[in-house]
Amino acid sequence: MLRVPAFRVLGRARAGKVSLLEDCGTRHCSSRLLGARDDAGDARAFFTTPIFYVNAAPHIGHLYSALLADALCRHRRLRVPSATATRFSTGTDEHGLKIQQAAAAAGLAPTELCDRVSGQFQQLFREADISSTDFIRTTEARHRTAVQHFWGVLKSRGLLYKGLYEGWYCASDECFLPEAKVTRQPGQSGDLCPVSLESGHPVSWTKEENYIFRLSQFRDPLLRWLRGNPQTITPEPFHQAALQWLEEDLPDLSVSRRSSHLHWGIPVPEDDSQTIYVWLDALVNYLTVIGYPNADFKSWWPTTAHIIGKDILKFHAIYWPALLLGAGMSPPHRIYVHSHWTVCGQKMSKSLGNVVDPRSCLDRYTVDGFRYFLLRQGVPNWDCDYYDEKVVKLLDSELADALGGLLNRCTASRINPSGIYPAFCTNCFPSEPGLVGPSVRAQAEDYALVNAVASLPKQVADYYDNFQIYKALEAVSNCVRQSNGFVQRHAPWKLNWESPADAPWLGTVLHVALECLRVFGTLLQPVTPSLADKLLSRLGVSATERSLGELYFLPRFYGHPCPFEGRRLGPDTGLLFPRLDQSRAWLVKAHRT
Ligand code: MSP
Questions:
Q1: How far is the CA of 377 from the centre of ligand 1 (A)?
Q2: What is the pLDDT of residue 15?
Q3: Residue 52 CB–ligand 1 contact under 6 Å
Q4: How many CB atoms lie within 10 A of CB 85?
Q5: What pLDDT score was predicted for residue 350?
Q6: Which residue has a Cα nearest atom 29 of ligand 1?
Q7: Does the beta carbon of 309 sit less than 6 angstroms from any atom of ligand 1?
Q8: Contact, 49 vs 72, CB < 8 A?
Q9: Which of 25, 210, 292, 367 has its CB 3.0 to 4.6 Å from that of 297, i.e. a possible disulfide?
């Protein structure tokens, strides 16, 4: 009986029907239509990272946000390789009181600080192989145009009014807080100072006349949207958190500041005594990068997937969808939320001096090594703790020993002297398990391996859809371990190419192991692009044979020809991933002292 590898469905996904819901406003919003797209289809997809504040240099938490988006986006490109089907934006958030104050504290003009730190983010993302298609800076002219247009739309729809706004404001978090979210902590002088209960950052009392957005009107449409689309916010607990906020008080939102107080921002159109609130300014970046307000943006907007940290969920799950509905657009299609990295059990902060510099990590552990570590160990549902020993241990065991070892075992000239992809022998490994015969050599565990690897691409795709990249990597790692077990079990180094009894089975063992490696290399591309390239190149897999649609695992087993059989392997360019423990021992020691 022939079994068709399960993952073939990936290449034939349905074309998703997209509804723009233009003019849905607050009354006509249909939550059913909002959930009607099929992500795996050949419709367009648009991934975004948050835009990063430029008050301080990037740390590993920022890189993690960008890597999650990058991996999702790269996986999507493997499913739908068309260069025009996927967009991916990142950038820097450069306006607001926080940046204004940071520049003043550093004795710099805001533009100087912005240029400097935005440059650091750009450099980090280049080095970390973040495959974004746009990097936006909110100080760009195209963004000012978009924000002012968006403002004009809200105004023309009667959703902005002027009023006296009073409350606690936290400049570090750039948000207003109700009294219940403020606590008192001893300050430097010993006096009790008001701080945000959630972030611990100082707050100050603000009372001014501002433009106010009628947020309270959007409670019911937002509830309908979230209840009607239970998969919009992933993981689920964050969806519940957003629903919970809607059960609480949802007051109107101040969306401007007095320019005399906040000058570093985009002026309110036709009223330059007021500056637009930095969060409204920042959120509109997602529209700017797809060409808003030009009509073109409409072919990208509803296909959006925002990747964000848990601290900015309320802005993305409540304020942003309400603003979009207010402007006659649909809320974002998906919001993927991740938790934070702590360092040796503590929150990362400049004052604690424990901020981990991502660029030195990329240097120490290699770009692919560090990408693998963050995505393999980072679990969106809860905070993860960083320490150097953990990186060394993981990379040595999974990339150097397990994956690198497997490749080495199947390609080393001792074992594969002809340097080709050997033939698969169906007599040695019949597609029907349990057959007996003189030439049958495959055992029950070997069929289990074939089944596991055959279902791996679909399993991995499902994990990506559920924003569980760490689980996708765990599944790959388990299959790598199983493949090593297969090689160990059949010990090809004990078989002899010269023996007519051994040769077909020796070729089959290597063929199966190389096929498994081809699947692993293909599936690892979104996370470790260079390492996967090295692996696939060593196997002789060409650039056009690396998408998910091309991934026919072990076709000979399923009765089809295999294009790789008999093909020369690619050149040996050295170890796939050198072990770190010896070469990096100094580092672990340095970290402990
Ligand atoms: N500028 C806003 C976002 C505006 S988006 C329209 C902002 N910037 S930020 O620089 O403070 O944070 C950017 C991202 O980094 C957020 O998703 C945040 O959750 C993430 N992280 C900040 N610290 C982090 C960790 N320690 N760990 C993981 N991610 C972290 O918020």
A1: 18
A2: 25
A3: yes
A4: 16
A5: 77
A6: 61
A7: yes
A8: no
A9: 292
Length of the chain: 593
What residue type is assigned to position 117 of the chain? V
Place of tokens 């044979």: 545
Alpha helices (H) along 229-337: 236-247, 278-283, 285-288, 313-314, 320-326
Written as six digits, the tokens of 581 are 């423990």
Amino acid, res. 508: T
CB half-sphere exposure, 470, CA atoms < 13 A: 14
Q: Which of 154, 257, 275, 155 is nearest to 209 (CA)?
A: 257
Question: How many angstroms separate the alpha carbon of residue 581 from the centre of ligand 1?
Answer: 32
Q: For residue 540, which of 524, 554, 521 has the smallest C-alpha distance?
A: 521
Confidence check: pLDDT of 156 > 70 = yes
Q: Which helix (H) or strand (E) holds 212?
A: strand 204-213
Which pLDDT tens digit goes with each residue over 333-389?
Answer: 999 999 999 998 898 887 788 999 999 999 999 999 999 999 999 999 999 999 999
Kindly report the number of other CB atoms within 10 A of residue 413's CB atom. Answer: 9
Q: Is the CB of 50 under 6 A from ligand 1?
A: yes
> Under DSSP, is residue 162 helix (H, G, I), strand (E, B) or coil?
strand
The amino acid sitting at 493 is W
